[in-house]
Amino acid sequence: MKKVYLAMTGDIIHHGHINIISEARKYGEVIVGLLTDEAIASYKRIPLLNYEERKKIVENIKGVSQVIPQKTLDYTENLEMIKPDYVIHGNDWREGIQKSIREKVIETLKKWDGELIEVEYTKGVSGSLLDEKIKKIGTTPEIRLKKLRRLIELKPFVRVIEASNGLTGLIAENTKIVKNGQVREFDAMWVSSLCDSTLKGKPDIELVDLTSRINTINEIMEVTTKPIILDGDTGGLKEHFVYNVRTLERLGVSAIIIEDKIGLKKNSLFGTEVEQIQDDPKNFADKINSGKKALVTDDFMIIARIESLILKAGIEDALKRAKIYIEAGADGIMIHSKEKSPQEIIDFCKEYKKLEVKVPLVAVPTTYNSITETELSELGVKIIIYANHLLRSAYPAMKKTAETILENGRSLEADKYCVSIKEILTLIPTEEI
Ligand code: SPV
Ligand code: MG
Questions:
Q1: Is the dihedral of CA 129, 134, 138, 140 positive or negative?
Q2: Which of 11, 29, 326, 345 lies 20 to 30 Å from 86 when distance is taken between CA atoms?
Q3: Do residues 87 and 117 touch, judged by C-beta distance below 8 A?
């Protein structure tokens, strides 16, 4: 019997899949290359069901003989192994991001005179269409909360951008580009204390209280589905922190990052220009440990932010603290720096890699932004946060517009800095009920 190879994700099964499987069956026995969770996460959202769950469904579809894992979007490894007589695919991959994958399949099949069969894809249904529909339904606190851990598990690194209100939340949720044949987007959102305070015209000194921070979070949650990491400043008093983490967990926030400072907190990017005191590591470890014990689930993450490099206490001190915080139950370590050069971060990461017990490492490359995501990822950084760039780019644009109106005594000259009225009116469409 001839062999027919069909690659699929099998996450949301629709009649288009059944059509292609029954078509494939006409040519021989159908072997499904089921994309692994990592392979799916590499080009779109993380799957709703994990590999084993999806396998159970797909191997029970009539006409499927066998299900094997396909570890990358590229078919080559599996094709070389199976040497199928046919590969079958919908004809919708001739253009767009799958075009190069298709070309490689054709090349590989040539080696043993295999053939690519392309069937008319089923109109009116597609995985991405259903994805959009699911997105519109929204999410639940539990699903959102758990998503961050899944992303850390499945992605080489998690890309995070600041969100400080509904609009920036939508930018974080919807901004996508296609690069090297793959869709690139942000995986999660950072609710920054600097941006949240600045947008309220307040300094970043823990003045904006948790009730107000939660209002911001709710505003973002209303219009997004991606996970949220909260900048929790110092976490406040341990006695308060234990209550606050439970509130955030209940809301569906995925993680809080707290920094090991005490007293009046100032923004880290001031460095030693202002007086800032680092907490005693045991004290801070106790705060983390108490927070962990107070949580209801194992999903919510408490990430310890080490300020040793900011306060010029050195890499040794930072590493010593990392060990103490990990032992206390920290689910991640954030190392921060305000140097222009990434060198001290690179040095820290190299030493951190040698630790016996590690947790995911977080970096915020604001000042040392010559380093790329790929370089940070190779150094072992798992979460990369772009902490304030939306606010920092919006502010000069708004200021320029205000000045231009003053300068001209009218707004005509400011038009070139503004989106059109038509665009702003339709930016947020009314939901069709
Ligand atoms: C923030 O975004 O508020 C942060 C990161 O804490 S930083 O501003 O670099 O300290
Ligand atoms: Mg902050």
A1: negative
A2: 11
A3: yes
Please report which helix (H) or strand (E) contains residue 25, including its range: helix 15-25
Residue 278 and residue 418 in one domain? no
β-bridge pairing 176-179 and 158-162: unpaired
DSSP H helices, 117-237, are 127-137, 141-154, 166-174, 193-199, 210-223
**Domain count along the chain:** 3
The answer for residues whose C-beta is within 8 angstroms of residue 321's C-beta and 6 or more apart is 260, 281, 284, 304, 306, 308
Q: Which residues are catalytic?
A: 204
Query: Cβ distance 191 to 215 under 8 Å?
Result: no
User: What spacing in Å lies between the alpha carbon of 140 and ligand 2's midpoint?
Assistant: 27
**Within 13 Å and on the Cβ side, how many CA atoms surround 212?**
12
Measured from the Cα of 204, ligand 1's closest atom is 3
Residue nearest atom 7 of ligand 1, based on CA coordinates = 268
Q: Which amino acid is at 272?
A: T
What is the pTM (predicted TM-score) of this model?
A: 0.91
Per-residue pLDDT, averaged over 318-325, amounts to: 98
Name the band, by pLDDT with cuts 50, 70 and 90, for residue 433: low
Residues sharing a CB contact under 8 Å with residue 159, sequence separation 6 or more, in sequence order: 185, 186, 187, 188, 373, 384, 386
Q: Is the pLDDT of residue 243 over 70?
A: yes
Q: What separation in Å is there between the alpha carbon of 164 and the centre of ligand 1?
A: 13
pLDDT digits (tens, 9 = 90+) for 259-301: 999 988 889 889 888 888 999 999 999 999 999 999 999 999 9
What distances in angstroms separate CA 336 from CA 62, 205, 209, 407, one per listed residue?
54, 17, 23, 41
Dist. CA 261–CA 234, nearest whole Å: 6
Specify if 207 maps to a domain. yes
| Same domain membership, residue 225 and residue 242 | yes
> Cα(357) to centroid of ligand 1, in Å?
27
pLDDT tier at 136, thresholds 50, 70, 90: confident
Token digits of residue 391: 């606010």
Q: Which of 117-131, 189-203, 333-347, 373-387 has the lowest mean pLDDT?
A: 117-131
How many Cβ atoms from other residues are within 10 Å of residue 264's Cβ? 13
* Whether the Cβ atoms of residue 196 and residue 168 lie closer than 8 Å to each other: no
- Determine contact, residues 352/319, Cβ cutoff 8 Å: yes
CA distance 54 to 191: 34
Whether 50 is covered by a domain: the verdict is: yes
Residue ID of nearest Cα to ligand 1 atom 5:
387
| 432 located within any domain | no
202, 267, 362, 390: residue to mutate for ligand 1 pocket, most atoms within 8 A of CB: 267
